[in-house]
Model the fold of this input.
Amino acid sequence: MYRYVLKRLLMMIPVLIGISVIIFTIISLAPGNPGRLILGERASPEAVSELNAQLGFYDPLPVRYVNYMANALRGDFGQSWRTGGNVADEIMNRFPTTLLLSVLVVSFVSVTAIPLGVMAALKKDSVADGIGMIVALVFIAIPTFWLGLMLMLVFSLHLNLLPATGSERLVNFILPTITVSALSIAQIMRMTRSSMLEVLRQDYIRTAIAKGAENKTVIWRHAIRNALLPVITTMGVNFGYTLGGSVLTETVFGMAGIGTLLLAAIRSQDVPVVMGCVLLMSFLFSAVTLLVDLSYGVIDPRIKAQYSGIRR
Done:
């Protein structure tokens, strides 16, 4: 197990380097002038040129990348060209909002989509199964930003039950959580149903039932555990995407998260902030993927045995 974890951690290094090279190259080749952005339009050309020289703007691209990564490894992600603040501080001020939204989304999806998918599989071809599949298809077809606007229109403007914007209180996260969760609920519900139906057709399930095991025991102790493997993979990917910042949702609901910070940085070509956000998102996504892989061993003992190097 430890060797596997170490191997996966080492594999994250080239992934992060490759992502950083691609993003840094794209942003650096885009037209822009950091000295002019920082000093403003009224600054003299001499002052702008001097500041660009201090920032290393005139250095070759490989030199700029190496210097940036060397500082980043020491925890120094530079200063924002747009605000002048420390990039690490700006990201950490926004990250709790995105993290809380991600946790709420995953929790809400888990307690709704998985039970509904299991029920739909156990009641295959029933009226409840048909209604559930229709609702799932509707949620998949609805654009996220449109759903967010409709929720704001109904629950904030007409009913005046929930706040439309902000992220200061927990109640502010209710509408964004529902908005982000809608698509994931539909996907996870359909996947749970399909996976559960496939597992229920397996020989060991029929054997357990033929030996007189109770249906509840067979379903909850055997079928669901095996059916959850692909579901956990999808949920882990969705969690990683949400941690990366739900740009549309955070923008619609006016939330001060990583998504809105990254969007503002891209618009202003604020390279240090963009790089800091991308590196954080890449690391978190890789870490979530590793945790998902390790969770397989908890659910399926056969996978745990492979991790531990046990031959049977």
